[in-house]
Task: inverse folding
């Protein structure tokens, strides 16, 4: 509540949190992407779902970063990915974290240790292609909701005109593009391609009421305001196929789709598959079994979360394991919830180490 006391950003002169640097405990961050995480790989023009100050880490206010970097930005506006990634990298450098962030490390297995340490963590190095092992007594599990990407149950997904993630309109020079998905990432891709002049065929499994309700209740976001304008227009270049399933990606861009009205074939130049993913819990399978909580919202947020002690975010099944972010019970779409969980996790570990 002190970090985000109200809807609007707190001016720097009124900032109520102060932090003191203490002796470093022995920690290491293993990451495939480094500071900024998945934001290093989102579409080139991606914006956040919330204002700038929702995305900040309290030790270094994003307003201070803008000031230090000479950037004139509105703290209550959405943030462009380029500003956000630069902020997280500046945060890591300013706090002296960078030497302890191991980039290019994909954690593949966490198991119980036979030695004095509680866990052994195995990670695959992208630089050497070889596994590296670490030992620890406390393990924070924050792999995000898309560490295991979903796959389409369709033939021909290996065709060269099919891509599994949207980057920018420049990557799709053809006239007709099919977007497959239904989440916010697919909405972003379909709208941006449409506004760049493409004819878009947008294929979704969901019913139209769900999609239209999300658009109607997300008008605080500019790109959903644009979606409302598209739907109110003639939709000459935006074809929406609801309750539909992909059957086959054929030669020369011919795609076969099962729709409520029957099977149809559409010829396109490119296909963008944005169907999301799930947390890869197989990484910690050796520590299980685990108790899960089914998290759902009124739109598309659906995943299994690990049940945790709500006072510390420690797993109820495995002492020393701390799910964070989307993997932790009860955490919803708002990134503010991630901050609260991380404060609890850090506090509990520091208390157990006798550091506080």
Result:
């Amino acid at each position: 509540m002190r970090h985000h006391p109200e809807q609007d950003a707190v001016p720097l002169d009124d900032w109520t949190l102060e932090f003191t640097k203490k002796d470093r405990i022995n920690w290491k961050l293993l990451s495939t992407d480094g500071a900024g995480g998945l934001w290093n790989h989102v579409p080139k023009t991606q914006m956040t779902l919330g204002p700038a100050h929702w995305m900040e880490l309290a030790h270094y206010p994003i307003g201070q970063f803008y000031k230090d970097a000479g950037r004139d930005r509105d703290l209550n506006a959405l943030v462009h990915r380029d500003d956000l990634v630069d902020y997280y990298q500046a945060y890591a450098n300013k706090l002296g974290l960078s030497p302890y962030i191991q980039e290019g490390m994909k954690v593949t297995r966490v198991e119980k240790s036979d030695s004095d340490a509680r866990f052994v963590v195995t990670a695959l190095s992208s630089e050497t292609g070889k596994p590296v092992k670490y030992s620890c007594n406390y393990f924070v599990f924050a792999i995000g909701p898309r560490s295991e990407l979903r796959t389409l149950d369709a033939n021909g997904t290996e065709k060269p005109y099919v891509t599994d993630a949207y980057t920018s309109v420049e990557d799709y020079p053809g006239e007709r593009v099919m977007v497959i998905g239904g989440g916010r990432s697919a909405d972003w891709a379909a709208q941006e391609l449409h506004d760049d002049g493409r004819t878009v065929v947008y294929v979704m499994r969901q019913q139209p009421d769900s999609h239209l309700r999300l658009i109607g209740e997300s008008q605080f976001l500019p790109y959903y305001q644009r979606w409302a304008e598209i739907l109110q227009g003639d939709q000459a270049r935006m074809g929406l196929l609801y309750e539909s399933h992909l059957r086959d990606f054929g030669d020369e861009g011919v795609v076969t789709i099962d729709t409520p009205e029957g099977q149809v074939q559409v010829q396109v130049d490119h296909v963008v598959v944005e169907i999301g993913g799930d947390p890869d819990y197989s990484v910690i399978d050796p520590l299980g079994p685990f108790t899960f909580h089914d998290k759902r919202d009124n739109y598309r947020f659906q995943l299994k979360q690990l049940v945790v002690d709500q006072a510390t975010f420690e797993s109820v099944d495995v002492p020393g394991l701390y799910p964070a972010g989307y993997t932790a019970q009860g955490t919803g779409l708002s990134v503010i919830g991630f901050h609260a969980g991380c404060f609890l996790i850090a506090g509990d570990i520091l208390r157990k180490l006798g550091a506080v």
Q: What stands out?
A: The chain has a mean pLDDT of 92. The chain has two domains: 12-147+278-352, 151-273. The two ends are 21 Å apart (CA to CA). The first strand starts at residue 29 and ends at 30.
